[in-house]
Amino acid sequence: MRTRAALLEKHFGTSDLEEVRALGWARKDYPAEDFVSVKFPYTAPGVTDIPTIKETLSHGVYLTREYARNAYVFKVLDKYAVKISQHEVLLQEAEDLLFLEKIPQLNTPKVFSAFVEQEPDGSRKRYCLVMEYIPGPNFREIWGELDETGKVLLGTRIGEQLKGLRSVSQETDSPFYGRVNGKGWSPWIGFLPQNQGGLAGPYSTHKELMANVAEKAERNVAYGYHNCTVIPQSTEDALANLTNGCRNCSLEDQRPVLTHLQLEPQHIILRPNDKGDYDIFIIDWEYMGWLPAWIQGVVLEHHLTWYVGDRLVDFPGQIAVYFGDPGDEDLLLDSILKGTGPINRELVGIMGKCMKEIPLDFI
């Protein structure tokens, strides 16, 4: 049986938990060109009324706060959705959206501008993304009003968008796992350890990718999410399952496909179309990249459909996290998968069991 102290020494070079936590909270300002290939600042051709951060904070209509990266979103001039954050990942979202604008079958907000400003006191940078404002109810707001047929239709529409995403080719002779333009993810992503250059990835093989996922899981166990001195056998079994079970899969399951890692109800907007139906717009794209074909199933099962489970849990001061009726999870997942096409549920199940035992998330 391994001890927690031994794991801390292995991954962080010290068994002092306070030193490890200090390392974990330490931030660096990475050069923008390390994160993205697109040159910023960027402004779409012909656009002349881009609001500054100061104008947005003074006159914008507050829409929401994205807690994962402490980003605030405002509506400005009834046509712009302006997202402001202190995290560099906002530039990656801008790059992702600019890439997706070229894919006609996908419904995404247009990017009008993306830029960086210093905080007024000069202490930190602020990143700003100015997008098209997409009006309409989001998934959370509409789900409870739908009958079973309507819920199946909504799931199918989401699946169709994901199928379009998964059909996008890498256009390279050397397949990889990573972001658009061959870049890695932000060092703050949840399921991968950052490398010495600050980014996580890209990776050239499925084996390399899964070895890094397993490393991050082991780091998380060592970091102290389990209040123990010796690592429990159930946790060791989950780590072994993650290392071995998900590595040994078919070439089709290993195939890199564009994957959305942060599908949450508030990020899915319904907009009526001229067919008497509606179109689905996914409006948040911070975490997207080419990953094994089965990973999207993990995100669906342990993020989006998780929210519609019949759970009576609230966080103080916030709206209910969970909403839905008994059976909604399976109904939604099945209807989405009808749209996406087949995904290896066995591998999804292996990862799901690991995630119940090990603190590992995709964002």
Care to describe what's here?
- With 363 residues, this protein is α+β, with helices and mostly antiparallel strands.
- The chain folds into two domains: 1-25 and 134-363, Aminoglycoside 3'-phosphotransferase, Chain: A, domain 2, CATH 3.90.1200; 32-132, 2-Layer Sandwich (Phosphorylase Kinase, domain 1).
- The chain contains 13 helices and ten strands.
- The protein has helices spanning 4-12, 17-25, 32-35, 53-59, 89-100, 139-143, 148-166, 206-225, 233-245, 251-254, 295-307, 328-340, 345-357, and strands spanning 42-43, 61-66, 71-76, 80-85, 111-118, 125-132, 256-260, 268-272, 278-282, 288-292.
- A six-stranded antiparallel sheet has the order 1-5-6-4-3-2, sandwiched between helices.
- Helix 1 (4-12) crosses helix 8 (206-225) and helix 9 runs antiparallel to helix 13 (345-357).
- The radius of gyration is 21 Å and the shape is globular.
- The model is unreliable at 311-320 (pLDDT under 50).
- It holds the Pfam family APH.
Overall SS class: alpha+beta
Q: Tell me, rounded to a whole number, the average pLDDT.
A: 87
Query: Distance N terminus to C terminus?
Result: 30 Å
Largest sheet composition: 6 strands, antiparallel
The fold-level CATH name of the largest domain is Aminoglycoside 3'-phosphotransferase, Chain: A, domain 2
Mind telling me the C-alpha Rg?
21 Å
Low-pLDDT parts are: 311-320
The largest sheet has its strands arranged as 1-5-6-4-3-2
Shape: globular
InterPro entries: AGP_Transferase, Aminoglycoside_PTrfase, Kinase-like_dom_sf
Pfam families: APH
Domain Aminoglycoside phosphotransferase: 71-293
Protein name: Aminoglycoside phosphotransferase domain-containing protein
